[in-house]
Amino acid sequence: MRWTPVLLAALAGLEAAHAHGDEPHMNMVLPRLRNVEELRQKRAKYEPWNPPTVANKPRGDRTNRLSPRQVDNITLGDNDQCGGTFGRCADGFCCSSAGWCGQTAEYCSAPDCQINYGPGCDGNQKPSGPDTANDARPLKGSIPYGGLGIYDCENDGDVAVTYDDGPYIYTAAMLDAFKAHSAVATWFITGNNLGKGQINVAYRDVIKRMFDEGHQIASHTWSHENLDQMTLAQRKNQMVYNEIAFMDILGFYPTYMRPPYSICGPECQQQMVDLGYHITYFDLDTQGYLHTDPSQIQFSLNLWDAAMVARSACNGSYLHIEHDIHQQVATTFTNHMLDSIVANGWKAVTVGECLGDPPENWYRGNVPSYNFKISAVSPLACTSTRITSSSSATSTRTSTSSRSTSTALAVSRDGSCGATGAKTCQGSVFGNCCSKNGWCGSTAAYCGTGCQSKYGTCGSQSSSSSVGSGTASNTRSSAPSSGTGTRSATGSSSAPSSTSTRPVSTDGQCGVGKGRQCTGSAFGNCCSQYNFCGSTSGHCGTGCQSAFGTCNAGSASSAGSSAGSSSRASSAAAGGSSTASSTGALPTSSAPTGVSSTNPAAATNTRLSTSGECGGTNGFNCLGSNFGDCCSPYNYCGNTTAHCDTGCQSTFGRCSGSGTGTNVQVSLNGNCGPANGGASCAGSSFGNCCSSYGYCGSSSAFCGTGCQSGFGTCA
């Protein structure tokens, strides 16, 4: 925000008023209203960084640097300073984030106002409306309540767009944009934050319009506090106050909520069950709250565009998060996103719809029925994700691997395989081999002893072709076509296959920056302009990088009379055949000079991760999990360089890149250096520099004189 001369003069007078006669006084840090650009940046103080397409899951064992706030015994102070040993302000006064008592928005606005020390804080003000505190709360439907939360959608082709922190001054115009695109979203509404006023006073019409136009309304608490730093009574008020405001506006209130800062520990999780709420997170964060300037928003646009080619509407879905309190998000990003959803054949839906939850379960109270149907403007890019006989294809390839005998089976989309789910790994993004434990992959652990040839290929390498004939259809193509096998085993195109000796992508990323090619990858043979492997026109058409894979729209499907085979060695050309060359280990997933490694302990660890978490006290293993083979320093499974490179835990999965085997301990609590177990700030959410005092940060105080270069970066 910008200070006006009048306001600065007023604040100067305020400082003078705090000087008691001629006595010396401290150089006061004046209270201020944190501008909206800073609000979401508070997130970094609470949760570890994850790649934008990985769910930022709250950690149950997170170190809480503040004790839960107990307010019963806080004494009245001098109504000058507040907080800590100064006590609380007088009734009707607010305690600013800087610890001063006052009554204007600079003191009272949530979430900065300290609700334990400021009775007048916006977060302490109960709205007018029917009290819901004692309502019966039966748990309706099959969607889980409370617990670890919801992270992704169930239905392919769905994008559940969600916005936090509003409504705000930009929201009404955003509703216009959604209506123009026949799209809907879910709005996680905060009741009284940023000094905007209570929603049932200032935003009644906007919220009514949301519901009338088919959007889903959900709760983001009353005043956007950290729920893990509250008493049970305070946390209940955060939910009930919002309910009262919704009842006053609509006559009903939501059953879906998202915790501020994505923080809701075990006590909070159970209380959400008691209050009847589905805890909702996300699996795609385009980070608009960190790039709010017009010169920065392109970063978020690029993240969105990359997501659109990383998955297609026929084989994926997204539960997306953004924030409608930022102008660039509300205008530039939202319009681009909606255009892209339509152009790529996705369907913008509510969270409830993407989970298959009937609308009557989304609310409590007098809920009118939804009597409209929102659908994608453009047709879906593909119509089937099953292997069928509609694409008869005969293959005469040779290989060192066992022939897959799986036909007419669904291709695995969750990494599981075998008789139980009747799913094959052949053509899946996880790898073509079905392990003895029923998981898809491409290493010796999957393709060797115990490999189930009925549900994929077996032998030295998962992407190697099989002897004999197969019946398949490309799971990413928009229509059945005649071809030579599944997507991951063939690369026929109007253009020749890549003959590069570069490593084959194992995480779906490609191009100059990654040094990896798509030819022979499980993700598709084309390297898009955004450096992702795939088989759609978005990957194989305009901007496709022929040096890192095949190009032209038909490269994912077999075409013409010639059959092209690809292998991990990438030595095939169109019309030729090749034999897969493999050592049984995956190629590097980062720099070309990196080395892929799997610790023997990981190869024999049978505690397979089923939640995406790894390592830690439970010792869960990522190798063969649905989430990726690498265990990040933050104990989450994945396949990106953030998971597989520096800090990757090889004891619990595969690691690759320059950081292989180092197992660097990244600071999760802001402490660093020798006195803190050798924790490094590099990659930490607190900043990359380790100060002389052993704390992570990014200012000159951390990165300048005394900075410990052995535990992070220094200026």
Automatic annotation (TrEMBL):
One MF annotation (Gene Ontology) recorded for this entry: chitin binding
Disulphide bridges: 89-101, 94-108, 433-447, 526-540, 630-644, 689-703
Membrane-spanning intervals of the chain: none
InterPro entries hit by this protein: Chitin-bd_1 (IPR001002), Chitin-binding_1_CS (IPR018371), Endochitinase-like_sf (IPR036861), Glyco_hydro/deAcase_b/a-brl (IPR011330), NODB_dom (IPR002509)
Signal peptide: 1-19
Keyword field contains Disulfide bond: yes
Polar residues: compositionally biased ranges: 592-604
Name used for this protein in its record: Chitin deacetylase
Organism: Colletotrichum tanaceti
